[in-house]
Amino acid sequence: MTFEKLTANVRKKITLLANSDESAIKHAELVYAESNTQLKQEISTLKEKLSNLEIIAGFKEHSPLVAKAVPPPKGGKKGKDLPIDVSRIDMRVGKIVEVERHPDADSLFVEKVNLGEGNLRTVVSGLVPHVPIEMMQGLVGIFMCNLKPVKMRGIESQGMLMCATDADGRVEPLVIEGPAELMLGDRVYVQGYPGQPDAQLNPKKKVWEQVKPDMRVDGAQIATYKGVPWKLMNSPNAVIKAPTMVDAQIS
């Protein structure tokens, strides 16, 4: 029942109340209490949807409650028995709020990315030959967040925008199809591969290099790891995919 219908229902009950007997009054009180509860639930749902839309639009960061739902990685267990799989990779939903060409590299974009952390991250991507800058601005995609920061022609990159690359060398960023209430910072997981991602990948261990070959877009354009689709923790119905490519490498 919509907010407007609930309000009309309550008004109707109040009008009838004036000419009712005691039993009818008690019944009306029960109906009012039930309607009031439904109204509160409806208002709470609308507030949550509005908050999530503001996050996606970049008007606000996550609230503490949302931050708890998508905690930053603490790093998994340490030791030689740690599995080399997708659970070690910290991939999250982010939105590019600013983008410009790198001043010293023709092929690089410099992006400011909102990952719901409170501060924007700088990400440098070699996508100038592949993606118009107008498409990069405002893009909501998947970012790898636990690579060791590295300087690219003098500007430190603090992550990587996940893209599909086909056999012809075409590159396109992965996109997310699904509910409007996507949360910035929501983490990617793959069913069957539990565990916390590393706080920061050790370049010497080459974890990403070993995981990367099994990161692919399948024949239906869906992002997968070893054939299992990527999912978002807080939006399980969302679909992470390539806009046009099939059977392509993800990197």
Structural features, described:
The protein is α+β, with helices and mostly antiparallel strands. It has a domain at 86-250: Nucleic acid-binding proteins (OB fold (Dihydrolipoamide Acetyltransferase, E2P), Beta Barrel), CATH 2.40.50.140. 26% of the residues lie in helices and 25% in strands. It contains five helices and 16 strands. The protein has helices at 3-17, 22-57, 64-69, 133-136, 207-211, and strands spanning 91-101, 109-114, 121-125, 140-144, 150-152, 155-157, 160-161, 163-165, 171-173, 175-177, 188-190, 215-217, 223-225, 228-232, 239-241, 248-250. The strands form four sheets. Strands 9-8-16-12-13-14-11 form a seven-stranded antiparallel sheet, with no helix packed on it. Strands 3-2-1-4-7 form a five-stranded antiparallel sheet, with no helix packed on it. Helix 1 runs antiparallel to helix 2. The radius of gyration is 24 Å and the shape is elongated. It starts with a helix and ends with a strand. Mean pLDDT is 83; it is low at 51-69.
Question: In a nutshell, what does this entry contain?
Answer:
The chain is built from five helices and 16 strands. With 251 residues, the chain is an alpha+beta fold.
What features would you highlight for this structure?
16 strands; 251 residues; seven-stranded antiparallel β-sheet; five-stranded antiparallel β-sheet; 25% strand; alpha+beta; single chain; elongated; OB fold (Dihydrolipoamide Acetyltransferase, E2P); RNA-binding
